Amino acid sequence: MSSSTTPECNCRITLDFDILRQSQVFAGAPAEVVKLFAYLSRHRTYQPGASILLQGDKAENCYLIISGEVDIITRHRDQEIVVQRLRPGSFFGELALLARFDWFFSARATQETEILIISREGFEKVLSKYPEKRDKITEKVIQLRISRFENQTANLLDRLLEAGLSADSGPLIG
């Protein structure tokens, strides 16, 4: 970082550094790596009901909820279904750091929500500067997605069982 950064910018970077250090993906990562992610990230505040990302748009960013709540929503058979409600400290969109695709879900703020955004471009810049950290950080991103998938599957199964699905109903898929 250059000496041209303002005190306000340095303060934001310090706060973002602390937030990222406490997250699942960056816990244990070297300070210089986390600091660079903090420097390259940006903030955005969303009002209740505001769309953060839309199903079908190009996936280019990962999002970390600093405050507020976000509903993860998918459209299926012309219906909006809330798949999960995420709270502060939760990442979403993390796969956008690793691959190019269109969003398969939407995200909407349920209350005033502050988000820290990491772009794929910024992610690639950091990892090109620290190539020896690529595998470990990529693994953490994948582990985060697997954990969220497990939680979403458990929530879905709970809802199906509560709705009367029984074990003898046959396979859910296939």
From TrEMBL:
Cyclic nucleotide-binding domain boundaries: 25-144
Entry keywords, A to Z: Ion channel, Ion transport, Ligand-gated ion channel, Transport
PROSITE patterns in the record: CNMP_BINDING_3
Superkingdom of this protein's organism: Bacteria
Iron-sulfur is among the record's keywords: no
KW Transport (keyword) present: yes
One GO MF term attached to the UniProt entry: protein-containing complex binding
PANTHER family: CYCLIC NUCLEOTIDE-GATED CATION CHANNEL SUBUNIT A
Protein name as it appears in the record: Cyclic nucleotide-binding domain-containing protein
Source species of the chain: Desulfopila aestuarii DSM 18488
Organism phylogeny: Bacteria, Pseudomonadati, Thermodesulfobacteriota, Desulfobulbia, Desulfobulbales
